[in-house]
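During the reporting period the student researcher (J.K.) took over the structure-prediction task from the postdoctoral fellow and processed the backlog of single-chain submissions. One of the processed entries is reproduced below for the supervisory committee.
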Amino acid sequence: MAKVSDEARTKYFEKIKQNKRQIELSLQHEVKIKVVISNGEPGVEFQKIALAEENLIIASNFILMNHLSLVLLGVKNENFLNDARKTCYKIIIYMEEVFSDLLDAPYGDYSDKIDIVTDLPEMERYRIIRQLGFSIQTVKDGFGENSKWKWSIIELEARLATLSKNVIDLKKFVPGMDPRSEGFRERVEHFRMTCRLLQASADNFRMKYELSTNRIDDFKMAINYLSALKRFFMLTNQKREIEELKKKIDIWKQKMDTDSKNSESAARKRRLER
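J.K. obtained the following structure tokens:
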């Protein structure tokens, strides 16, 4: 690797000053919002959304500082990438506290949470999820395919998929799928994005099971994401996709049961050989 010139290094540190100031400012805002929450003032859910927004700004600045490191110094800054990754986790947690982390569950199980923030526009919810998804993808790309954070990021993506589903107010969403409705295009984009995220999460947990852990819990998570996707497709009555998912879920369950029995049999054999 070529030696970084003093000029490039000076330029880099000068450039990231603004990003560091913005991070510090957002951290100060975060502290103030937490004080409001701790005082028990009304509107806690909206305050937590504000916390998520501040941390989106923080994550973006960590990502920008890594980009500047690549451009000006020719090396990625894994510390900034890791700080961005941890910040994305914070955003997920704040949003889960507002909208729930339920995966394959009926809407009625978490609709009370949606009702509390009914004044938050659909497009704002979509924007937050989209921006968070972009941050996670950028961190993932920054670390590279064989990063030690590979499975951690898969978990992040899966929780994002669940959130993308849970932020949707189905009372407004289903009637809003009429092409004549205002916001129809964005609503369809959100629907399709959520479907992609749920399918990708199912595939990723299956990959994690096959290539890394061999833990049945990971296989179960993969199936749960397929089941959640099937339930989500029912909103628009996509019969062909629903039938295909039913078949896929059955095949995966059979494979999981077979693997589980084989694992138990191998464990018994090892105990007998001792």
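The committee noted the following: The chain has two domains: 1-145, 168-263.
J.K. will present the remaining backlog at the next meeting.
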